[in-house]
Amino acid sequence: MQKAELELKSMQATRHTNMQLLINVLPEHVARHFLSRDYKNEVKTAVDLTHFCTVSQELFSQSRDSVGVLFATIPNFSKFYTEDKGIECLRLLNEIIADFDDLLDDERFVSIEKIKMVSPTATYMAVSGLNPTKPDPLTRDSPVHLCTLIDFAMALRERLDEINKDSFNHFDLRVGVAFGNLVCGVIGAKKPIFDVWGDTVNEASRMDSTGLTGQIQVPKETAQVLVRHGYEVRLRGLVKVKGKGLMETYFVLGKKLKKVRSCQRNFSNYKSLGAMVYAIAQNRKKFISHSYKSQLLATDLQDVVVGQFSLVEFRLDEFFVRVVRYSQSQDVRS
What we know:
By secondary structure, the protein is α+β, with helices and mostly antiparallel strands. Strand 4 and strand 5 form a beta hairpin. The relative contact order is 0.09. It contains eleven helices and eleven strands. It folds into three domains: 2-57; 61-255, Alpha-Beta Plaits (2-Layer Sandwich); 263-333, no CATH class. Strands 1, 2, 3, 4, 5, 6, 7 and 8 form an eight-stranded mixed beta sheet that branches. Belongs to the adenylyl cyclase class-4/guanylyl cyclase family. Its EC number is 4.6.1.1.
């Protein structure tokens, strides 16, 4: 009896390990597709990954709308690579890609899925908005994950700069992004591969290959979506794209900085809060009756101090005004 229990636990542990391996090979929502539904009875008998994939040979494909696709290439890596130092070059490339992969663990990039690494061009391919079970944490508005993909591209660029400093290299990053519809699916059983196809994928690839180092190039339609979501873009012009002809493309510069209006302008003519209040009181003393002084003075004080102090308390005795200003650290009385 004890032996049977040990064997059962061993099989369960093996099955769990194989399931984790499958999740590492395929996107999580795709892996769970194979781990659920009508496969339960077959999965129970599949004690190794090869057998599991064999019993799950059903074609998996999905059509997706409003998906972001990114191609990020290190164009000067091919010049860096030499046959006599091939192993060392690949070791460095592996470190770069591993660092790129680490960014996917950031909560900001939960809606992004790595697809593959394309060689020999040293191109990193990723998509956003593909997994319906992982909506962007900011909002359910579908184009927002495209903004996340742009932020991811900028994070890739920053990470590569850090690698350059540590390795004393000068690698550049060239990025192309497009937004639209595509088809995704799994090809193969014993060695399943997840990939994406469609015009959006081709367009993103062309935005990369025709782009400039250090820039994120997008087509006009993608640029319009980004502008609506607070990004700055710069028109590059018409670019000849294979299979597309001339296309109007843009470079993404980053998020627009919000202008912060300073409250200091209200105090520009006064050296202190006391001087400001004294001036208000003197003006009011000439033109208003005593019965309305408190109300009108309160209005003036609110106009000039709101937004500058967390709390302002004032009292009016005859023509003497006492203001108490509270701050988190101490009380200041004028």
